[in-house]
Design goal:
alpha+beta, about 30% strand, Rossmann fold, Tumour Suppressor Smad4, 7-stranded antiparallel beta sheet, 10 helices, about 500 residues, globular, 8-stranded antiparallel beta sheet, 3 domains
Length: about 500
Amino acid sequence: MPSKHNVEADAASVEGNILRWTSGGDEGQVELDHIVCVVSSPNTALQAQGQGPGPGYRILFLESKEEKAQDQENAPMHLGKIDISTPLPTALTPFLTQIPTHLKSQQSANAEAEPIQVVISTRSGTGTAQTVFKDLVQPLLDGLGVNYQSHETQSAQSIISLSETQFLPQASAGVEQTIILLSGDGGLIDILDVFYRNKYDSTNGVQRMAAPNIALIPCGTGNAMASSIGLRSGPASSLKSLLKGKPVSLPVFAAKVSPGSMIVTEEGNGRASIPIAPTDSDTSDACDVSASQQVMYGAVVASWGLHAALVADSDTTAYRKFGSERFKMAAQELLYPSDGSESHRFRGQITITTRTKDPSESTDGIQQTILSEQEHMYVLATLVPRLEKEFLISPDSEALGGKMQFLRFGPMAPEDAMRLMTLAYQGGQHVREETVMYQEVVRVRIDFHEDEERWRRLCIDGKIVAVEKDGWMELCMEERELLNVIKL
Protein backbone atom coordinates (compact mmCIF):
# COMPACT_ATOMS: atom_id res chain seq x y z
CA MET A 1 0.00 0.00 0.00
CA PRO A 2 1.68 3.23 -1.09
CA SER A 3 1.91 5.80 1.66
CA LYS A 4 0.14 9.09 1.10
CA HIS A 5 3.09 10.60 2.99
CA ASN A 6 5.81 9.46 0.55
CA VAL A 7 6.39 13.06 -0.42
CA GLU A 8 8.96 15.77 -0.96
CA ALA A 9 7.97 18.46 1.49
CA ASP A 10 8.34 22.19 0.84
CA ALA A 11 8.39 22.95 4.55
CA ALA A 12 8.29 21.13 7.86
CA SER A 13 7.79 22.28 11.43
CA VAL A 14 7.11 20.75 14.84
CA GLU A 15 4.29 21.84 17.11
CA GLY A 16 4.17 20.00 20.41
CA ASN A 17 4.33 16.28 19.61
CA ILE A 18 3.31 16.75 15.96
CA LEU A 19 5.46 17.12 12.83
CA ARG A 20 3.58 19.17 10.25
CA TRP A 21 4.57 19.41 6.58
CA THR A 22 3.41 21.01 3.35
CA SER A 23 3.99 19.91 -0.23
CA GLY A 24 2.47 21.99 -2.98
CA GLY A 25 -1.12 22.39 -1.97
CA ASP A 26 -1.11 19.39 0.32
CA GLU A 27 -0.33 19.22 3.98
CA GLY A 28 -0.09 16.51 6.59
CA GLN A 29 1.13 15.58 10.02
CA VAL A 30 2.92 12.79 11.89
CA GLU A 31 3.18 12.12 15.61
CA LEU A 32 6.79 12.25 16.79
CA ASP A 33 6.28 8.92 18.59
CA HIS A 34 5.82 7.30 15.17
CA ILE A 35 9.14 8.49 13.76
CA VAL A 36 11.64 5.67 13.29
CA CYS A 37 14.62 7.78 12.28
CA VAL A 38 15.89 10.83 10.41
CA VAL A 39 18.84 10.38 8.07
CA SER A 40 20.73 12.55 5.63
CA SER A 41 19.14 12.45 2.21
CA PRO A 42 20.59 9.55 0.15
CA ASN A 43 20.39 11.63 -3.06
CA THR A 44 24.13 12.28 -3.07
CA ALA A 45 24.58 10.96 -6.59
CA LEU A 46 21.97 13.35 -7.97
CA GLN A 47 23.47 16.22 -6.01
CA ALA A 48 26.90 15.49 -7.50
CA GLN A 49 25.36 15.73 -10.97
CA GLY A 50 23.60 18.95 -10.11
CA GLN A 51 20.19 17.27 -10.45
CA GLY A 52 19.29 16.76 -6.82
CA PRO A 53 17.55 19.19 -4.47
CA GLY A 54 20.70 19.76 -2.46
CA PRO A 55 21.50 18.64 1.06
CA GLY A 56 18.41 17.51 2.93
CA TYR A 57 16.91 14.95 5.24
CA ARG A 58 14.71 11.89 4.98
CA ILE A 59 12.21 11.17 7.75
CA LEU A 60 11.05 7.56 8.05
CA PHE A 61 7.98 6.96 10.16
CA LEU A 62 5.28 4.40 10.92
CA GLU A 63 1.69 4.89 9.88
CA SER A 64 -1.35 2.67 10.27
CA LYS A 65 -2.57 0.88 7.16
CA GLU A 66 -6.09 1.20 8.58
CA GLU A 67 -6.82 4.85 9.27
CA LYS A 68 -10.08 4.09 11.06
CA ALA A 69 -8.82 1.11 13.06
CA GLN A 70 -10.10 1.27 16.66
CA ASP A 71 -6.85 -0.18 18.03
CA GLN A 72 -4.28 1.98 16.25
CA GLU A 73 -1.43 0.69 18.42
CA ASN A 74 -1.86 -2.90 17.23
CA ALA A 75 -3.11 -2.13 13.73
CA PRO A 76 -0.96 -3.24 10.74
CA MET A 77 1.75 -0.66 10.04
CA HIS A 78 3.47 0.67 6.95
CA LEU A 79 6.69 2.69 6.75
CA GLY A 80 6.33 6.07 5.09
CA LYS A 81 8.91 8.74 4.25
CA ILE A 82 9.12 12.49 3.96
CA ASP A 83 12.05 14.17 2.16
CA ILE A 84 12.78 17.75 3.17
CA SER A 85 15.38 20.11 1.73
CA THR A 86 14.81 22.84 4.30
CA PRO A 87 16.70 23.03 7.62
CA LEU A 88 15.78 20.26 10.03
CA PRO A 89 13.46 21.36 12.87
CA THR A 90 15.38 21.32 16.15
CA ALA A 91 12.84 18.98 17.75
CA LEU A 92 13.83 16.28 15.23
CA THR A 93 17.53 16.36 16.09
CA PRO A 94 17.22 13.45 18.60
CA PHE A 95 15.96 11.28 15.75
CA LEU A 96 19.06 11.84 13.58
CA THR A 97 20.60 8.44 12.92
CA GLN A 98 23.83 7.33 11.31
CA ILE A 99 23.52 4.18 9.27
CA PRO A 100 25.20 1.52 11.47
CA THR A 101 28.19 -0.49 10.31
CA HIS A 102 26.18 -3.71 10.20
CA LEU A 103 23.90 -2.18 7.52
CA LYS A 104 26.77 -1.15 5.28
CA SER A 105 27.92 -3.50 2.53
CA GLN A 106 31.18 -5.23 3.39
CA GLN A 107 34.06 -5.92 1.03
CA SER A 108 34.70 -9.59 0.33
CA ALA A 109 37.93 -11.22 -0.77
CA ASN A 110 37.10 -10.58 -4.42
CA ALA A 111 36.68 -6.86 -3.66
CA GLU A 112 32.96 -6.89 -4.49
CA ALA A 113 30.63 -5.32 -1.95
CA GLU A 114 28.57 -7.98 -0.20
CA PRO A 115 24.90 -6.96 0.11
CA ILE A 116 22.95 -7.25 3.33
CA GLN A 117 21.09 -10.57 3.29
CA VAL A 118 17.34 -10.59 3.98
CA VAL A 119 15.65 -13.93 4.66
CA ILE A 120 11.85 -14.04 4.46
CA SER A 121 10.43 -17.17 6.08
CA THR A 122 7.11 -17.56 4.30
CA ARG A 123 5.86 -20.38 6.56
CA SER A 124 6.67 -18.91 9.96
CA GLY A 125 3.78 -18.33 12.34
CA THR A 126 0.64 -17.26 10.51
CA GLY A 127 2.51 -16.39 7.31
CA THR A 128 3.03 -12.64 7.78
CA ALA A 129 6.71 -12.38 6.82
CA GLN A 130 6.15 -11.37 3.18
CA THR A 131 3.76 -8.59 4.21
CA VAL A 132 6.13 -7.37 6.93
CA PHE A 133 8.95 -7.22 4.40
CA LYS A 134 6.89 -5.29 1.86
CA ASP A 135 5.37 -2.85 4.36
CA LEU A 136 8.26 -2.26 6.78
CA VAL A 137 11.65 -3.76 6.00
CA GLN A 138 11.86 -3.07 2.27
CA PRO A 139 10.80 0.61 2.65
CA LEU A 140 13.37 1.03 5.44
CA LEU A 141 16.27 -0.45 3.45
CA ASP A 142 15.26 1.43 0.30
CA GLY A 143 14.80 4.63 2.28
CA LEU A 144 18.30 4.29 3.73
CA GLY A 145 19.84 3.40 0.38
CA VAL A 146 21.04 0.02 1.69
CA ASN A 147 22.34 -2.56 -0.77
CA TYR A 148 20.54 -5.83 0.01
CA GLN A 149 19.56 -9.20 -1.41
CA SER A 150 16.32 -10.91 -0.39
CA HIS A 151 15.52 -14.62 -0.20
CA GLU A 152 12.03 -16.10 0.21
CA THR A 153 11.92 -19.58 1.68
CA GLN A 154 10.42 -22.30 -0.51
CA SER A 155 10.46 -25.13 2.03
CA ALA A 156 11.41 -26.03 5.59
CA GLN A 157 14.95 -26.66 4.33
CA SER A 158 15.48 -23.28 2.63
CA ILE A 159 17.26 -21.50 5.49
CA ILE A 160 19.39 -24.56 6.20
CA SER A 161 20.44 -24.73 2.54
CA LEU A 162 21.15 -20.99 2.40
CA SER A 163 23.26 -21.25 5.55
CA GLU A 164 25.26 -24.19 4.18
CA THR A 165 25.88 -22.73 0.72
CA GLN A 166 26.32 -19.03 1.52
CA PHE A 167 26.38 -17.90 5.15
CA LEU A 168 28.82 -20.48 6.53
CA PRO A 169 31.31 -20.33 3.61
CA GLN A 170 31.36 -16.53 3.77
CA ALA A 171 31.89 -16.54 7.54
CA SER A 172 34.64 -19.14 7.21
CA ALA A 173 36.36 -16.88 4.69
CA GLY A 174 36.34 -14.05 7.23
CA VAL A 175 33.65 -12.00 5.42
CA GLU A 176 31.50 -9.84 7.68
CA GLN A 177 27.79 -10.50 7.10
CA THR A 178 24.48 -9.09 8.29
CA ILE A 179 21.42 -11.30 7.98
CA ILE A 180 18.01 -9.70 8.50
CA LEU A 181 15.79 -12.61 9.49
CA LEU A 182 12.02 -12.35 9.12
CA SER A 183 10.92 -15.50 10.90
CA GLY A 184 10.18 -17.06 14.25
CA ASP A 185 12.73 -18.78 16.46
CA GLY A 186 12.99 -21.63 13.97
CA GLY A 187 14.88 -19.60 11.36
CA LEU A 188 17.51 -18.53 13.88
CA ILE A 189 17.91 -22.11 15.07
CA ASP A 190 18.35 -23.39 11.51
CA ILE A 191 21.28 -21.01 11.00
CA LEU A 192 22.69 -21.80 14.42
CA ASP A 193 22.53 -25.55 13.84
CA VAL A 194 24.45 -25.33 10.55
CA PHE A 195 27.23 -23.21 12.10
CA TYR A 196 27.71 -25.32 15.23
CA ARG A 197 27.41 -28.66 13.49
CA ASN A 198 30.11 -27.92 10.91
CA LYS A 199 33.78 -27.97 11.83
CA TYR A 200 35.66 -24.78 10.97
CA ASP A 201 39.13 -25.37 9.60
CA SER A 202 41.47 -22.69 10.90
CA THR A 203 44.59 -24.27 9.41
CA ASN A 204 46.49 -23.28 6.27
CA GLY A 205 46.46 -19.62 7.23
CA VAL A 206 42.69 -19.20 6.88
CA GLN A 207 41.64 -16.14 8.83
CA ARG A 208 39.38 -16.33 11.88
CA MET A 209 35.69 -17.02 11.23
CA ALA A 210 33.63 -13.82 11.15
CA ALA A 211 30.46 -14.27 13.21
CA PRO A 212 27.45 -13.08 11.18
CA ASN A 213 25.26 -10.36 12.70
CA ILE A 214 21.63 -11.51 12.78
CA ALA A 215 18.85 -8.92 13.05
CA LEU A 216 15.55 -10.44 14.15
CA ILE A 217 12.25 -9.27 12.68
CA PRO A 218 9.73 -11.40 14.63
CA CYS A 219 7.21 -13.14 12.36
CA GLY A 220 6.70 -16.42 14.21
CA THR A 221 4.25 -17.71 16.79
CA GLY A 222 6.08 -17.46 20.11
CA ASN A 223 9.07 -15.32 19.05
CA ALA A 224 10.87 -16.22 22.28
CA MET A 225 14.27 -14.78 21.37
CA ALA A 226 12.86 -11.58 19.88
CA SER A 227 10.55 -11.02 22.86
CA SER A 228 13.43 -11.68 25.26
CA ILE A 229 15.73 -9.08 23.68
CA GLY A 230 13.05 -6.41 23.88
CA LEU A 231 11.21 -6.71 20.56
CA ARG A 232 7.85 -7.17 22.24
CA SER A 233 5.87 -4.78 20.05
CA GLY A 234 6.14 -6.95 16.98
CA PRO A 235 7.98 -6.31 13.70
CA ALA A 236 7.74 -2.50 13.91
CA SER A 237 9.78 -2.36 17.14
CA SER A 238 12.57 -4.31 15.48
CA LEU A 239 13.25 -1.48 13.01
CA LYS A 240 14.71 0.75 15.72
CA SER A 241 16.76 -2.16 17.04
CA LEU A 242 18.10 -2.74 13.52
CA LEU A 243 19.16 0.90 13.31
CA LYS A 244 20.47 1.52 16.82
CA GLY A 245 21.33 -1.92 18.19
CA LYS A 246 24.75 -3.50 18.56
CA PRO A 247 25.98 -7.03 17.84
CA VAL A 248 26.01 -9.26 20.93
CA SER A 249 27.29 -12.83 20.97
CA LEU A 250 24.54 -15.46 20.95
CA PRO A 251 24.90 -18.02 23.79
CA VAL A 252 24.22 -21.61 22.69
CA PHE A 253 23.60 -24.93 24.43
CA ALA A 254 24.31 -28.43 23.17
CA ALA A 255 21.72 -31.18 23.69
CA LYS A 256 23.24 -34.65 23.50
CA VAL A 257 20.72 -37.46 23.07
CA SER A 258 20.97 -41.23 23.30
CA PRO A 259 21.45 -43.35 20.16
CA GLY A 260 18.30 -43.94 18.15
CA SER A 261 16.67 -40.60 18.98
CA MET A 262 14.80 -39.05 16.04
CA ILE A 263 13.37 -35.65 15.10
CA VAL A 264 9.58 -35.77 14.76
CA THR A 265 8.30 -34.33 11.45
CA GLU A 266 5.12 -34.12 9.34
CA GLU A 267 2.82 -33.28 12.25
CA GLY A 268 4.00 -36.32 14.17
CA ASN A 269 3.80 -38.81 11.33
CA GLY A 270 7.40 -38.63 10.08
CA ARG A 271 10.85 -39.12 11.53
CA ALA A 272 14.22 -37.64 10.59
CA SER A 273 17.62 -38.66 11.84
CA ILE A 274 19.62 -36.40 14.13
CA PRO A 275 23.04 -35.67 12.58
CA ILE A 276 26.03 -36.92 14.50
CA ALA A 277 29.07 -34.88 15.47
CA PRO A 278 31.77 -35.19 12.77
CA THR A 279 34.67 -37.51 13.49
CA ASP A 280 37.00 -34.49 13.55
CA SER A 281 34.59 -32.46 15.64
CA ASP A 282 36.01 -29.27 17.11
CA THR A 283 33.27 -28.72 19.66
CA SER A 284 34.21 -27.36 23.05
CA ASP A 285 35.47 -29.66 25.78
CA ALA A 286 32.88 -28.21 28.17
CA CYS A 287 30.14 -30.25 26.49
CA ASP A 288 32.17 -33.45 26.06
CA VAL A 289 30.62 -34.00 22.62
CA SER A 290 32.48 -36.99 21.24
CA ALA A 291 32.79 -38.02 17.62
CA SER A 292 29.79 -39.85 16.12
CA GLN A 293 27.45 -38.71 18.93
CA GLN A 294 23.95 -37.40 18.20
CA VAL A 295 23.71 -33.76 19.24
CA MET A 296 21.41 -30.79 18.67
CA TYR A 297 22.08 -27.12 19.33
CA GLY A 298 19.80 -24.40 20.64
CA ALA A 299 19.64 -20.91 22.09
CA VAL A 300 16.19 -20.73 23.67
CA VAL A 301 14.77 -23.76 25.50
CA ALA A 302 15.00 -27.50 26.04
CA SER A 303 12.05 -29.16 27.76
CA TRP A 304 10.32 -32.39 28.66
CA GLY A 305 6.88 -32.98 30.12
CA LEU A 306 3.95 -30.63 29.72
CA HIS A 307 5.80 -27.94 27.74
CA ALA A 308 7.31 -30.35 25.21
CA ALA A 309 4.04 -32.24 24.83
CA LEU A 310 1.95 -29.14 24.17
CA VAL A 311 4.45 -27.80 21.61
CA ALA A 312 4.45 -31.19 19.87
CA ASP A 313 0.67 -31.67 19.94
CA SER A 314 -0.03 -28.13 18.69
CA ASP A 315 2.42 -28.34 15.78
CA THR A 316 -0.27 -29.00 13.18
CA THR A 317 -1.85 -26.97 10.40
CA ALA A 318 -5.15 -26.96 12.26
CA TYR A 319 -3.59 -25.55 15.44
CA ARG A 320 -1.16 -23.10 13.82
CA LYS A 321 -3.92 -20.87 12.47
CA PHE A 322 -4.64 -19.86 16.08
CA GLY A 323 -1.15 -18.35 16.55
CA SER A 324 0.20 -18.45 20.10
CA GLU A 325 -3.25 -19.43 21.41
CA ARG A 326 -2.53 -22.93 20.09
CA PHE A 327 -0.24 -23.57 23.08
CA LYS A 328 -3.02 -22.88 25.58
CA MET A 329 -5.44 -25.04 23.61
CA ALA A 330 -3.04 -28.00 23.57
CA ALA A 331 -2.27 -27.54 27.27
CA GLN A 332 -5.99 -27.73 28.06
CA GLU A 333 -6.25 -31.16 26.41
CA LEU A 334 -3.12 -32.44 28.16
CA LEU A 335 -4.29 -31.29 31.58
CA TYR A 336 -7.92 -32.29 31.08
CA PRO A 337 -7.82 -35.34 28.71
CA SER A 338 -11.05 -35.73 26.76
CA ASP A 339 -11.26 -39.40 27.79
CA GLY A 340 -11.64 -38.36 31.43
CA SER A 341 -8.32 -39.78 32.61
CA GLU A 342 -5.93 -37.83 34.84
CA SER A 343 -3.09 -35.82 33.33
CA HIS A 344 0.06 -37.85 32.71
CA ARG A 345 2.83 -38.25 35.29
CA PHE A 346 6.14 -38.11 33.42
CA ARG A 347 8.60 -40.63 34.84
CA GLY A 348 12.37 -40.23 34.79
CA GLN A 349 15.50 -39.42 36.75
CA ILE A 350 16.86 -35.86 36.61
CA THR A 351 20.44 -34.94 37.47
CA ILE A 352 21.48 -31.29 37.68
CA THR A 353 24.95 -29.79 37.96
CA THR A 354 25.37 -26.43 39.67
CA ARG A 355 28.19 -24.11 40.66
CA THR A 356 29.01 -23.81 44.33
CA LYS A 357 30.96 -21.02 45.96
CA ASP A 358 33.44 -22.01 48.63
CA PRO A 359 34.55 -18.89 50.56
CA SER A 360 37.97 -20.48 51.06
CA GLU A 361 38.51 -21.05 47.34
CA SER A 362 39.19 -18.47 44.64
CA THR A 363 37.16 -20.36 42.03
CA ASP A 364 33.67 -21.85 41.97
CA GLY A 365 33.20 -25.56 42.51
CA ILE A 366 30.82 -27.96 40.79
CA GLN A 367 28.13 -29.97 42.51
CA GLN A 368 26.02 -32.74 40.98
CA THR A 369 22.59 -33.55 42.42
CA ILE A 370 20.19 -36.38 41.55
CA LEU A 371 16.64 -35.20 42.25
CA SER A 372 14.74 -37.50 44.58
CA GLU A 373 11.52 -36.96 42.65
CA GLN A 374 10.92 -39.59 39.95
CA GLU A 375 7.59 -38.22 38.62
CA HIS A 376 7.27 -34.84 36.93
CA MET A 377 4.83 -32.58 35.14
CA TYR A 378 6.97 -29.70 33.83
CA VAL A 379 10.74 -29.79 33.22
CA LEU A 380 12.52 -27.01 31.36
CA ALA A 381 15.94 -25.41 30.91
CA THR A 382 16.21 -22.05 29.20
CA LEU A 383 18.67 -19.31 28.25
CA VAL A 384 16.00 -16.60 27.77
CA PRO A 385 13.46 -14.94 30.06
CA ARG A 386 10.42 -15.12 27.73
CA LEU A 387 8.93 -17.89 25.62
CA GLU A 388 6.18 -15.57 24.34
CA LYS A 389 5.62 -11.82 24.49
CA GLU A 390 3.95 -11.97 27.92
CA PHE A 391 5.04 -15.46 29.08
CA LEU A 392 7.89 -14.70 31.48
CA ILE A 393 9.05 -18.24 32.22
CA SER A 394 12.43 -17.28 33.71
CA PRO A 395 12.48 -13.82 35.32
CA ASP A 396 16.09 -14.22 36.47
CA SER A 397 17.36 -14.85 32.94
CA GLU A 398 19.12 -12.06 31.08
CA ALA A 399 18.70 -12.17 27.33
CA LEU A 400 22.02 -13.18 25.72
CA GLY A 401 23.53 -13.44 29.22
CA GLY A 402 24.74 -17.02 28.73
CA LYS A 403 23.24 -18.49 31.93
CA MET A 404 21.06 -21.61 31.94
CA GLN A 405 18.07 -21.61 34.28
CA PHE A 406 16.29 -24.82 35.30
CA LEU A 407 12.59 -24.98 36.21
CA ARG A 408 10.57 -27.98 37.37
CA PHE A 409 7.35 -28.85 39.13
CA GLY A 410 5.85 -32.24 39.85
CA PRO A 411 2.43 -33.80 39.24
CA MET A 412 -0.44 -31.72 40.59
CA ALA A 413 -4.11 -31.06 40.00
CA PRO A 414 -4.78 -29.55 36.55
CA GLU A 415 -6.22 -26.38 38.06
CA ASP A 416 -3.06 -25.90 40.11
CA ALA A 417 -0.86 -26.35 37.03
CA MET A 418 -3.01 -23.84 35.13
CA ARG A 419 -2.65 -21.40 38.01
CA LEU A 420 1.16 -21.67 37.81
CA MET A 421 1.09 -21.03 34.06
CA THR A 422 -1.21 -18.04 34.62
CA LEU A 423 1.29 -16.65 37.13
CA ALA A 424 3.99 -16.91 34.45
CA TYR A 425 1.89 -14.51 32.37
CA GLN A 426 1.72 -12.20 35.40
CA GLY A 427 5.34 -11.13 35.55
CA GLY A 428 6.86 -14.55 36.23
CA GLN A 429 5.34 -14.89 39.70
CA HIS A 430 5.22 -18.70 39.39
CA VAL A 431 8.87 -19.02 40.41
CA ARG A 432 7.96 -17.79 43.91
CA GLU A 433 5.72 -20.81 44.53
CA GLU A 434 7.01 -23.54 46.87
CA THR A 435 6.01 -26.24 44.38
CA VAL A 436 8.35 -24.82 41.71
CA MET A 437 12.06 -25.63 41.62
CA TYR A 438 13.95 -22.79 39.92
CA GLN A 439 17.71 -22.26 39.85
CA GLU A 440 20.77 -21.65 37.68
CA VAL A 441 22.49 -24.79 36.41
CA VAL A 442 25.47 -25.62 34.21
CA ARG A 443 24.31 -29.08 33.11
CA VAL A 444 21.10 -31.13 33.10
CA ARG A 445 20.65 -34.85 32.41
CA ILE A 446 17.36 -36.70 32.09
CA ASP A 447 17.11 -40.50 32.03
CA PHE A 448 13.68 -41.47 30.76
CA HIS A 449 11.61 -44.21 32.41
CA GLU A 450 8.65 -44.16 30.03
CA ASP A 451 7.28 -47.02 27.89
CA GLU A 452 5.24 -44.92 25.43
CA GLU A 453 7.10 -42.72 22.94
CA ARG A 454 4.67 -39.78 23.28
CA TRP A 455 5.88 -39.31 26.87
CA ARG A 456 9.54 -39.38 25.79
CA ARG A 457 9.25 -36.40 23.45
CA LEU A 458 11.60 -33.45 23.98
CA CYS A 459 11.33 -29.89 22.70
CA ILE A 460 14.66 -28.41 21.57
CA ASP A 461 13.97 -24.85 20.42
CA GLY A 462 10.70 -25.86 18.81
CA LYS A 463 11.97 -29.07 17.24
CA ILE A 464 10.42 -32.22 18.70
CA VAL A 465 12.71 -35.16 19.45
CA ALA A 466 11.52 -38.67 20.25
CA VAL A 467 13.98 -40.51 22.48
CA GLU A 468 14.29 -44.31 22.46
CA LYS A 469 13.03 -46.35 25.42
CA ASP A 470 15.48 -46.15 28.36
CA GLY A 471 17.18 -43.28 26.54
CA TRP A 472 18.55 -40.00 27.88
CA MET A 473 19.31 -36.35 27.13
CA GLU A 474 22.11 -34.17 28.48
CA LEU A 475 22.35 -30.36 28.22
CA CYS A 476 25.36 -28.11 28.66
CA MET A 477 26.60 -24.72 27.49
CA GLU A 478 28.74 -24.34 24.37
CA GLU A 479 31.94 -22.33 24.65
CA ARG A 480 32.19 -21.37 20.98
CA GLU A 481 30.73 -18.00 19.90
CA LEU A 482 29.88 -18.27 16.20
CA LEU A 483 26.87 -15.94 15.80
CA ASN A 484 25.84 -12.45 16.91
CA VAL A 485 22.37 -11.00 17.45
CA ILE A 486 21.62 -7.30 17.02
CA LYS A 487 20.29 -6.03 20.35
CA LEU A 488 19.24 -2.52 21.34
